[in-house]
Design goal:
Layout: E1 3-12, E2 18-19, H1 20-25, H2 32-39, E3 43-44, H3 53-68, E4 77-81, H4 92-100, E5 107-111, H5 117-131, E6 136-144, H6 154-157, E7 162-172, E8 177-184, E9 192-193, E10 196-199, E11 202-205, E12 210-211, H7 213-234, E13 244-247, H8 252-261, H9 273-276, H10 283-293, E14 302-309, E15 313-320
Parallel strand pairs: 4-5, 4-6, 13-14
Antiparallel strand pairs: 1-7, 2-3, 6-7, 8-15, 9-12, 10-11, 14-15
Helix pairs in contact: 3-4, 7-8
The chain binds oxa(dethia)-CoA (UT7).
Amino acid sequence: MIYSRITGTGSYLPGNPVSNDDLVARGVDTSDAWIVERTGIRFRHLAAPGQMASDLALEAARRALEAAGVGPDKVDLIIVATSTPDYIFPSTAALLQAKLGASNGGAAFDLQAVCSGFAYALAVADKFIRSGSHRCALVVGAEVFSRILDWSDRGTCVLFGDGAGAVVLEADDKPGVLATAIHADGRHSGILCVPGMVSAGKVTGDPFLRMDGQAVFKFAVRALGDVAVEVLQQADAGADSVDWLIPHQANVRILQATAKRLDMSMDKVFVTVDRHGNTSAASVPLALDLGVRDGRICHGQRLLLQGVGGGFTWGAALVDF
Ligand code: UT7
């Protein structure tokens, strides 16, 4: 039997932390008190002009490969989860492959499932590895959401940040990824979207992120609770067997509601939203890598990773790390 295991993690945050007060100083009509009370966010990182998703992905990927002790030429599958790709095409994954200097002709493609992107990408990579077609995957979440924010819309611009996280997933005879589940319901696409496009050489529609915050909040709490229960049932495991719940980092109140639904103490919920804001597809691998590097997340622990976001999409993975 072939299974997939996470053998290395890496992450990258651009620039210096930007505080809530920094946003006020830049002219956003908000306050540190409002943002902290409603979201738990204190800081986010913003990419420099010209710094692309593939640049952030490159740094995170290099760190993950180094941690796994794997050279770029061993990687036969690169999946980059992003909703803020460098270009319409080529894919950010193909650009990353070239920047890494990987020249073995492995597969590389982007996956667009917004804030569920990493959960989706991990599920897809796990299935490729279990099928026997590929043996070493680089699974990356990389975002520059600052490019699609309307800085005059205080209901959204204070929430998001830029960053990248990556894992190396390798074939093994022992189970690492125990269960995955991914879902979508496109009927809810309008509550979180960037309804713009490039046509006839011009941007048409609205190229900024638009969100009905309260509708998204309610959907997220229900979806994260449901999908956590689903992967636990698939693996015939109890919530008490989980050492760390690593949910998509959008709002600390969503994390608290998910922990309550699973009857799990907040001590077991990995929280980075205070420092990173919502980095969409990057948030889960960023949190995972932070925990690994500061020693809180260790090999041998059981992790429940989960995402929810635009589409609407949601997904989770139960992993023995
Ligand atoms: O990755 C998945 C995507 N995103 C999410 O999961 C986000 C889900 N939603 C949320 O986290 C919350 O709905 C928000 C944080 C976005 C908003 O919190 P809320 O408690 O739902 O606030 P609200 O939208 O109902 O707004 C309440 C008030 C309004 O003022 P009035 O009408 O009561 O006078 C807003 O204008 O707060 C005001 N407001 C702000 N005030 C200061 C909205 N944004 C801000 C702001 N600073 N940044």
